[in-house]
């Protein structure tokens, strides 16, 4: 699998992000959806990664700089054909290693409380994330969990 920094110009990536947004709105109330659209993901404070295998898109993940030391994970998504194949684990390890290389010291995220998000929460827990209070501009929301962890050693 090849993971690359993506400029969000490809149709496959845009389609995957549109599916991601559609699922977010189908599982959470609109005021609790914090997913970014394609234009927001093109912001200079965001690095967007896409994962490919044999020319097929496997998944994506973005890191958003909150401060020079702190990033947020955004838009974690695997293609339906790639679920439970290890793509998310590889993408997350890659993005966190890039963040460490760039000198970031902390990573946080927001995810849903519904069962739909259980696999994502399991993955984050496996990577050492712990539950925390809202960070950045987030506020307490019964439909959101917030997670964080310090960054130090690289991930295998």
CATH names the topology as: Aminopeptidase
**N/C terminus separation:** 15 Å
- State the domain count: 1
Count of alpha/pi helices: 4
Percent strand: 25-35%
CATH architecture: 3-Layer(aba) Sandwich
Structure notes:
The protein has helices at 11-27, 38-41, 87-101, 118-126; strands spanning 2-5, 46-53, 56-65, 70-78, 106-112, 130-132, 144-150. A seven-stranded mixed beta sheet has the order 1-2-3-4-5-7-6, sandwiched between helices. It is of the alpha+beta class and 156 residues long. A hairpin with a 4-residue loop joins strand 3 and strand 4 (70-78). Helix content is 29%, strand content 31%. It has a single domain, classed as Aminopeptidase.
Task: State the gist of this model.
The protein has 156 residues and is of the alpha+beta class. It has helices spanning 11-27, 38-41, 87-101, 118-126; strands at residues 2-5, 46-53, 56-65, 70-78, 106-112, 130-132, 144-150. It has one domain (2-150): Aminopeptidase.
Indicate the topology.
Blueprint: E1 2-5, H1 11-27, H2 38-41, E2 46-53, E3 56-65, E4 70-78, H3 87-101, E5 106-112, H4 118-126, E6 130-132, E7 144-150
Parallel strand pairs: 4-5
Antiparallel strand pairs: 1-2, 2-3, 3-4, 5-7, 6-7
Pfam family, one: Acetyltransf_1
GO molecular function: acyltransferase activity, transferring groups other than amino-acyl groups
InterPro entries: Acyl_CoA_acyltransferase, Bact_Acetyltransf, GNAT_dom
What brief labels describe this structure?
transferase; acyltransferase; 4 helices; globular; GNAT family N-acetyltransferase; 156 residues; alpha+beta; 7-stranded mixed β-sheet; acyltransferase activity, transferring groups other than amino-acyl groups; Aminopeptidase; GNAT_dom
């Amino acid at each position: 699998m090849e993971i690359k920094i993506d400029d969000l110009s490809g149709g496959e990536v845009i389609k995957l992000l549109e599916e991601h947004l559609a699922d977010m709105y189908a599982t959470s109330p609109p005021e609790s959806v914090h997913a970014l659209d394609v234009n927001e993901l093109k912001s200079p404070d965001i690095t967007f990664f896409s994962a490919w295998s044999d020319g097929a898109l496997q998944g994506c993940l973005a890191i958003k700089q909150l401060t020079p030391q702190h990033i947020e994970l955004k838009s974690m998504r695997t293609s339906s054909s790639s679920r439970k194949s290890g793509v998310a684990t590889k993408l997350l390890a890659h993005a966190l290693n890039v963040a460490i290389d760039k000198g970031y010291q902390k990573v946080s995220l927001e995810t849903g409380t519904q069962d739909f998000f259980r696999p994502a929460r399991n993955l984050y827990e496996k990577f050492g994330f712990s539950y925390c209070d809202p960070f950045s501009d987030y506020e307490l929301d019964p439909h959101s969990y917030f997670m964080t962890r310090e960054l130090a050693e690289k991930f295998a």
